[in-house]
Amino acid sequence: MRLLPILCWLSLLSLPLQANDVVLISGGPALRSFEKYKKASHDKYWGNFIDSALTRAEELKKDLKAGDKIVWLVFRPSYVSRTTEDQTDYLKIIGERSAKLGLSPIYFDNKTQLFTLLRRDGSKEKPKICRLEYFGHSNKKCWMFDYSNRVDGGALEPLVVHVDDLEKISGSSFTSDAECVSYGCHSGEEFSQRWRMIVGRPMVGAVGKTDYSDGGMPKLSTGKDGSWVY
Predict the structure, then answer these.
(1) Domain limits of the chain?
(2) Does domain 23-229 match CATH 3.40.50?
(3) What is the secondary structure of 153-185 as a DSSP string?
(4) Is 90 exceeded by the pLDDT of residue 77?
């Protein structure tokens, strides 16, 4: 009888660890035809939010727990528009670059599709999210997937996630210790706090602007007044 507890304990040790997903989200670039005459011109380079996400994926792969995987969600319409403008097949380039890291982008066209992709129940088919990071345009109230692309400087309803939309993202889709980061401008001035209140997980965000122009991971661009906050 003494062996029974030991055997039960050993059987628990042999069970596979619960696998989770690391989710990276890339918003889209502006069109140069909208931006080139502005004093503060955005997205001279089309791949700001692609290169940063792939840089981060390469970093994260080194520390993934057994069974965990990286899921990369990319806002498709902006890259289709920029492809037409630049006459360069950016979706093909995205696919080729991600394949080198063993990733395959999952495209979404609006926030409804994004919310569906973030809906998880912890099953094998829909693992919970242990980390979420966003790369793209934003202001203090919104993630803006299509900034200055289809609509110059004004993102319409399907193109943003507003703080009032956050109730559509369930905290139960995340692990209890999930970590979240928004690398968009001004996210730390309201969006991060509302995310924590509604989704129930902390999110790091920027006070001030972020700068992707040097390639790789973005940095704060507001000097001594900029900071990363929860």
Answers:
(1) 23-229
(2) yes
(3) T---GGGEEEGGGGGGS-GGGEEEEEEEEE-ST
(4) yes
